[in-house]
Structure formats: C-alpha cells, structure tokens
C-alpha cells in the first residue's frame, strides 16, 4: 500500500501545548494530586511527557482497552484487556488519552471507572476530532482539536506502526485517501 506522511503537528508545537496542559492541570489539582490513568498504548508518550512537566506529586496506573472492528473505525464495543492494579475509590482520577474520535471508547471507560466511586473523574486528551462524534462526550482538557484525518505518531499508530514518530502526521494511503 502506498503510504505518505504529512506533518500536522510538529514536535515543537506539541511540546508547547503539553506544557500548557501541565500548567492547567497542576493548578487545578494543587490541593489533591490525581492518579493518572494512561490508556495504552497510544497515550504512553503523551503521559510520559505530561507527567514530567506537572508540579504536583501524581501517581500513575495503566489500562488497555480494545474496540472490535477495523483498524480505523470504532465499533463501539469495548473490551478491557488490562485493568488497573488498584482501587480508585475516593481517589481523584485523571484519564490520559491520546485521541477522542467517535467518543465511544472514552464514554465507556468513563462510565466504567465512575462506577468504582472515585472522588472525581476527569479526562485529558491530546487530540480531539469533534466532527466524528457519535456520542456526546467532552474532554475536560484537550491539546488540539483536529480535522477528520487519520493521524499517526507521538504514540498513535496505524496497525501498530508509526508510534515512534516524534511529530503527529496525517497518514495518506489507499484506505484513507483524504
Ligand atoms: P473512539 O472510541 O472512536 O473515540 O476511538 C478512540 C480510539 O480510536 C483512540 O484511542 C485510537 O486508538 C483510535 N483512533 C481514532 N482516531 C485515530 C487516528 O486518527 N489515529 C490513530 N488512532 C485513532
């Protein structure tokens, strides 16, 4: 398949925005440092950059979820592949996600985690594609709203490829010819 990459968000632009998000989060959570929950695998790079810029003593945990269906289209069925190692009852929890697309994954995840009775539950996403939403979902913190293009890099993949790229790039190929 003929694939071409076009930089949408440079590493410099990402770094500036992640620092701004870290300032906002440090300010909002200064009285109650949160447990950061990284949604594997896509949010790994975002969370590791973000947490090092926070000025509050956070703890971290990881979850892995998968939606059935094709690589680029969410089916809405979410399966937990890896769960948290600890109870979040009474904790201030901040879910760290790479991208909100249809909103189905985070909608499910937020409901699932809310049922475990955290003290508070918020979401930070690096990227948001609001035009693709199928359920109403608004992240509490968002790095960039982007157009309806399939992007890779900075943790985001296409068939497990391209996660290592330092920039966020639009992937042009036969399946995503836009
Ligand atoms: P949602 O349930 O449709 O909001 O899907 C969210 C998940 O779909 C993300 O966590 C990504 O794994 C994947 N995804 C959606 N859009 C993209 C994209 O442009 N590039 C890479 N992965 C994406």
Task: Walk me through this protein's architecture.
The protein is α/β, with parallel strands linked by helices and about 180 residues long. The protein has one domain: Rossmann fold. It contains three helices and nine strands. It has helices spanning about 10-30, 45-55, 105-115, and strands at about 5-10, 35-40, 60-65, 80, 90-100, 120-130, 140-145, 150, 170. The protein has a six-stranded mixed sheet with strand order 4-3-2-5-6-7, sandwiched between helices. A three-stranded antiparallel sheet has the order 1-9-8. Helix 3 links the parallel strand 5 (about 90-100) and strand 6. It is globular, with a radius of gyration of 16 Å. It binds inosinic acid. Inosinic acid binds near residues 42, 102, 103, 104 and 152.
